[in-house]
Design brief:
Helices cover 73% and strands 0% of the residues. The chain is mainly alpha-helical.
Length: 182
C-alpha cells in the first residue's frame, strides 16, 4: 500500500510537471518578440500624440485663415470706402487699361518698392504692364527675376529715369502716364 501511494504521488507530480513544461513552452515568448511588441506600442502611442498635434495645428490653421480672410475683407472694405471718398479724378474711366492703371496707382499710394527677388501679386501687376508696354506675352509668375529687372531698366531708360531696374513710385507714375497716352 505504501508503494502504491508513492507511485500514485509520483505519477501526479510527473503529470503536473509535464503540464507546467507544456505551458512554459507554448506561452513564454522569446525576448525579441517582447521587445518588438514594446516598440510597436511606443510607436502607436507616438502616432496618437502626433494625430492630436495635427488636429491642433489644423484648428490653428483654420483660425489663422479665418483671421486672414477677415483682414483681407476689412482691407478691401477700406479701399472701397477710400475710393468712394476720393475717386481718381485724373484717370478717364474709358481707358482700356483702367484696371491696370488703378493697380499701379495703388502701388504708388502704398509707396511700394520692388527689386530683384520681390514676389507677389504686385509684382504681377508690373509684369502685366511690361507685357503691354513691350507687346509681349511673357508668363505672369509674380516673381521679380533677372529678366524682369532688365525689362524695367529698359523702360526706365526710355522714360528718362535712372535705369537701375528697381521699380518704385516714380517708375509706377511713368507707367501710368504711358498707359494713359495709349
Amino acid at each position: 500500500m505504501e508503494n502504491f501511494k508513492f507511485m500514485l504521488v509520483s505519477i501526479i507530480i510527473l503529470a503536473v510537471l509535464a503540464l507546467v513544461g507544456y505551458w512554459a513552452i507554448f506561452t513564454i515568448e522569446p525576448g525579441n518578440v517582447n521587445v518588438d511588441r514594446q516598440k510597436q506600442q511606443e510607436l502607436e502611442d507616438k502616432n496618437k500624440e502626433l494625430e492630436k498635434e495635427v488636429e491642433g495645428l489644423k484648428s490653428e490653421l483654420g483660425l489663422l485663415q479665418a483671421t486672414q480672410e477677415e483682414q483681407v475683407k476689412q482691407a478691401e472694405d477700406a479701399l472701397i470706402a477710400e475710393s468712394e471718398k476720393n475717386p481718381p479724378a485724373t484717370t478717364p474711366a474709358s481707358s482700356k487699361y483702367q484696371s491696370l492703371i488703378n493697380d499701379l496707382q495703388k502701388l504708388v499710394a502704398d509707396n511700394v518698392f520692388m527689386k530683384e527677388g520681390s514676389r507677389g501679386t504686385r509684382v504681377g501687376t508690373v509684369q502685366t504692364f511690361l507685357n503691354t508696354y513691350n507687346k509681349t506675352s511673357k508668363k505672369i509668375d509674380n516673381d521679380y527675376g533677372k529678366g524682369m529687372k532688365a525689362d524695367v531698366a529698359a523702360f526706365q531708360k526710355t522714360q528718362g529715369l535712372t535705369a537701375d531696374g528697381e521699380a518704385g513710385p516714380s517708375t509706377f507714375r511713368k507707367m501710368i502716364e504711358w498707359l494713359k497716352k495709349q
